[in-house]
């Protein structure tokens, strides 16, 4: 296909070489073609993946640029883009949509179809193939123009005001309220395309009778749904066809503002390309925010997309500086390395993130169990060393009973009870609780706890005043034979394994603190402070909260329910986190300079940020986390 206007076919002596279209494809891997630019004996050599002369047909351009491959990738869920870039009047619009006169003046000859129509014909063929295989595909399109740094909806017949470009973590940069039209056939699409082309801003100037004054971006969204039973995933692919406005040296005062806006946004695009090529590592800054064009092309340029750039040049000697600019620009763009990846459906993404969460929690569980058993082992050895034969709990003894006794003795004083002062024994434990219960019980019982919690519907959750039957029946009777009396607290934070108590726990060095529930002591006249926010709730408290109606929860007067009676007390003893490798805090609070975020845990009613204290973690812990 000839890539130059008919007026530019004459090559003046000593003028620019004959190649006009330079296809830059990030995904091409074959031997590049070279293009020579000569002037006054000087030679500049550029290499491209394809160089197409003036005689090349539209069909040949489509094939040489291998646009079919991009369409196939878009069907598989990638974000693909095709840019036409170059000087004004060099044939960008012609390449992308075909000649103006034909597109807008009646039925277009198939032979002059541009890349857009050819891509769509191929795409519809692919969709048909897929639907015969049992997969569903939904096609929709949007068409916008960036004119004078304002975004206009080309599919809106009466656009009243420019649209805003917004950025979000999930959607990236996008245009608010942009119309998206669904289509099923090439005819339907052609109508939409013609409507869009009619709404474009064009002007006449010396180099082009009908020059585009803005950048046009046509985006085809390809959403696949899974209907086959092969376990495939739903994807959301995107194919963007971009007809950039031509770079030019503005002499015409009428078009001065348009020209400077065009040049400014092309300059921003050039800066982004340079930054993408030069910068290395994750911390690189790409100035996408400099213009709306770069914002909207950010995912195609530097994200997980694949981009093909078609550089159009004019062969006249007068255009040599612009030609060289275009060739430098596109040579640099060629050096961007793409990392194509399919965009999976949000639901699929969620499933994968939850699976990862489960993995992390399993690793955490394993780590905590290991720590627990090593502490128990150390304690047994210590006791054996002190008094041989007395360290193993006798039949009928439970290590936690002493703790309960201690708690009773202190009679509700706020002095913290620690293991150093007395041997802790689980409250309410019976004679059947053995050493194995201490070492392995936590794991078994955590599993038991999790199963009914996972299956519980809100209706099946216990209300205040009711015993949590589903849970109590699944646990050893020794743990629920009487209302558990919790050991005295040392600070407001509960014994959630991931919570740290910077003051008390560090001092005590053995047990993390337990939340002292003063409400269990009806004679205590002191007001009950609200110790923790919902964001910090452990699952046992969530269980209580979920069980009661809001009315019951908000009851201001009267005897308060004995919360400890409804509390599901996990049988695992408080974990020895001293000093704590993990700590948590609600959003934005408690962050220290030496703490680095590990991950975010999703919880209902708010987030729980988990931080890793790098000063207090040992390498084996780190290994587990990094590996997971
Ligand atoms: N290969 C070609 N064969 C025949 N005519 C062409 C060719 N390329 C471009 N033209 C004609 O040259 C003129 C300018 O082309 P076009 O509008 O596509 O340029 P452009 O690069 O989009 O310019 P601008 O940036 O100003 O919009 C048009 O009339 C178009 O039909």
TrEMBL record:
InterPro entries assigned: Kinesin-like_fam (IPR027640), Kinesin_motor_CS (IPR019821), Kinesin_motor_dom (IPR001752), Kinesin_motor_dom_sf (IPR036961), P-loop_NTPase (IPR027417)
One Gene Ontology term from the biological process aspect of the record: mitotic spindle organization
Transmembrane stretches, start-end: none
Pfam entry (one): Kinesin
Skewed-composition ranges (Basic and acidic residues): 379-389
UniProt KW keywords: ATP-binding, Coiled coil, Cytoplasm, Cytoskeleton, Microtubule, Motor protein, Nucleotide-binding
All copies of domain Kinesin motor, residue ranges: 1-336
Annotated ATP binding sites: 86-93
Record GO cellular component, one term: microtubule associated complex
Cell compartment(s), UniProt: Cytoplasm, Cytoskeleton
Coiled coil feature spans: 351-378
Feature: compositional bias, Polar residues: 404-420
Region (Disordered): 379-398, 404-470
Family under the similarity heading: Belongs to the TRAFAC class myosin-kinesin ATPase superfamily. Kinesin family.
Protein name (Swiss-Prot/TrEMBL): Kinesin-like protein
Organism per entry: Aldrovandia affinis
